[in-house]
Amino acid sequence: MPSPVILDPVRDVLGLIDVQPDFMPGGRLAVPEGDAVLGPIAGLLAGPLLHAFATQDWHPPGHRSFASAHAGRAAFETIEVDYGLQTLWPDHAVQNTAGAALHPALDQARIEVIIRKGFRPVVDSYSAFFENDRKTPTGLDGWLRVRGFTRLFLAGLATDFCVAYSAEDAARLGYEVVVVEDACRGIGLPEIGGGTTIASARTRLLAAGVRFLSAAELR
């Protein structure tokens, strides 16, 4: 049995990535078993992690990442845009809709800042730190540094997209990063040559120094 991670109330922060109804069963872009993250996240919010931030996908209608914005294209196809490859998604997390709200089961008492991303009509945004052009910042890095947080524990949806991009950027920016594995779920798109986006994201994150732990290992 691995030794538990001793949490530091000064430097540690919990990051809740896109815990929104549209990514839950019945939502517009449902992640398989997406609602299974709610229980572990509730435990994390009630435990020794005293500080948290949340991200929120917040797309205007007709966003460039929506398949419906491209005639003849279907969801989960990939197109080339000016900032690289873009996966096309079902319309989701549209501003001011119930599906875009933070999930009502979340206790927001410890959520100190909410980062809205993907609100620019022509740029998608997976990472909590940068939009998909890889240069437009969300402002989260500045907030974390001013507050003195140096270790991030990430949970939410989806493991292979917004959680993975956030973890990768955090590690690149010099943070110590832990993905709380049982508090995340992934989409798992198939990849050319076999495997899924979940497997490739995990490989990429491990190579970047990101750790994967369970909620039970945090004390």
Can you tell me about this structure?
With 219 residues, the chain is of the alpha/beta class. The chain has one domain: Rossmann fold (3-Layer(aba) Sandwich), CATH 3.40.50. 19% of the residues lie in helices and 21% in strands. It has four helices and eight strands. The protein has helices at residues 38-46, 140-147, 159-172, 197-207, and strands at residues 12-17, 52-57, 78-81, 84-87, 111-117, 151-157, 176-185, 211-213. Strands 5-2-1-6-7-8 form a six-stranded parallel sheet, with helices on both faces. A two-stranded antiparallel ribbon has the order 3-4. Strand 3 (78-81) and strand 4 (84-87) form a beta hairpin. Helix 3 packs parallel to helix 4. The longest helix is centred in the C-terminal third of the chain and has 14 residues, at 159-172.
Describe how the helices and strands are arranged.
Elements: E1 12-17, H1 38-46, E2 52-57, E3 78-81, E4 84-87, E5 111-117, H2 140-147, E6 151-157, H3 159-172, E7 176-185, H4 197-207, E8 211-213
Parallel strand pairs: 1-2, 1-6, 2-5, 6-7, 7-8
Antiparallel strand pairs: 3-4
Helix pairs in contact: 3-4
